[in-house]
Specification:
single chain; 222 residues; 7-stranded mixed beta sheet; 9 helices
């Protein structure tokens, strides 16, 4: 894996990462690439695309997360984590944060378990079940919920609500359909706090981060 290519992308994000962070991020991509050859974790192949579309895309949200998550050890749920994006790159860079990766597909949770052990990540928890089922025993436990390419925004918000503490936040990583998806959201239930583009170095694909908070303070029964 080319450290120079990875470092180039990171410099473009303005993040101050250690050499150990970079080494662990590269190791994660190596393991994902190796598993992907057999288990088809993701359709994106090739070093350059993986770095830009997977890893850099995932950590590009860190400045926004840091802006809102002021607690020293915030708890974050990654819904439909897939191959661990964005949760594992975030967990590598922020070892004091606690992330729960919720994924129903067994071959993907097997990779997540492998990656946790390979990277010695003690700050992640992996739940091998459907998001709706996980919500039943994780109600009101999280400071934030995040997702990357999981489902529509309206559905993501609906699924996120049971997980959130009363003052919890939703971080939605979206692409060019963000405006269209926002039209389907009932804004009497949600407050839009942030809607801004994410700059991914050397990548022309549109990326957006939306931050929303629920208007109501109590969670409906599941």
């Amino acid at each position: 894996m080319s450290q120079g290519l990875l470092a180039l992308g990171i410099e473009g994000l303005g993040l101050n990462l250690s050499a150990a962070n970079i080494a662990d991020l590269e190791l994660f991509l190596q393991e994902m690439g190796r598993w992907n050859q057999v288990h088809n974790l993701t359709a994106i192949e090739g070093e350059a695309d993986s770095i830009q579309l997977h890893l850099i895309d995932s950590i590009a949200v860190l400045p926004v997360l840091r802006q809102f998550l002021k607690a020293p050890n915030p708890k974050i749920a990654d819904l439909g984590s897939g191959g661990g994006l964005p949760a594992i790159p975030i967990a590598i860079v922020e070892p004091e944060w606690h992330l729960s990766l919720i994924e129903a597909v067994r071959k993907k949770t097997a990779f997540l378990q492998h990656a946790r052990g390979r990277l010695k990540l003690k700050n992640i928890n992996i739940l091998s079940e459907r998001v709706e089922n996980a919500a039943m025993h994780q109600k009101g436990q999280f400071d934030a919920v995040i997702s990357r390419a999981f489902t529509s925004l309206a559905r993501f918000l609906e699924l996120s609500l049971p997980f959130l503490k009363p003052d919890g936040l939703v971080f939605a990583m979206k692409g060019k359909r963000a405006d269209e998806e926002m039209q389907e959201v009932c804004m009497s239930d949600w407050r839009l706090l942030v809607d801004e583009p994410l700059h991914i170095p050397n990548l022309s694909v549109e990326r957006r981060i939306l931050v929303l908070s629920p208007m109501r303070k109590s969670h409906p029964s599941l």
